[in-house]
Structures are given as C-alpha cells and as structure tokens.
Amino acid sequence: DVIGVKDGRNYIIEVKPRADDRALGQVEGYVELARRDLPEISDPRPMVVCEGIVPDTDYLALKKGIELVVV
C-alpha cells in the first residue's frame, strides 16, 4: 500500500484493520516486487500497520522479519 522511510530504512507497508497471515503474505509479495521493479529502493523491509492482530500473527511476523505496528 505504501513505501515509507523510518530511521533511514526503506519499508514496504501494508495497512489492514487486523494483521493476519494474509497481510503477512501480501507484504512479503510486495517486498519481492519492489526488489524487482524498484532497484533504487535499497533493502526494502516489510511492515504491517494495523488496529489489531489476529492470534499467532505476531509470532509469524517475528519469524519472518515483518514489523507489526498497531495504531
């Protein structure tokens, strides 16, 4: 949904009401597409911004290196 910069790092950001395994998969796909199509964005990292997190999604995000931000 968004490409952003935080603390000098590039992020590919998926915005959802609730983070779940589908949101994690979507942001992983967007990161791969950004690596292919936007080489000027160095080392894009995945992030999901949400209002809530479905159980076990925080564990999966941690294992996959996806940052979750609850707003």
Instruction: Summarize the biggest pleated sheet.
Output: 4 strands, mixed
- Which stretches are poorly predicted, pLDDT < 50 over at least 5 residues? none
Q: How far apart lie the N and C ends?
A: 16 Å
User: How many helices in DSSP terms?
Assistant: 2
Mean pLDDT level: 96
Provide the structure class. alpha/beta
Radius of gyration, in Å, reads 11 Å
> What is the strand arrangement across the widest sheet?
1-2-3-4
Please indicate the percent range of residues in DSSP E strands (runs of 2 or more).
35-45%
Record field, number of beta strands: 4
Could you walk me through the main structural features you see in this protein, from its secondary elements to its overall organization?
This protein is α/β, with parallel strands linked by helices. Helices cover 35% and strands 41% of the residues. The protein contains two helices and four strands, in the order ββαβαβ. It has a four-stranded mixed β-sheet, covered by helices on one side. The longest helix is centred in the middle third of the chain and has 17 residues, at 21-37.
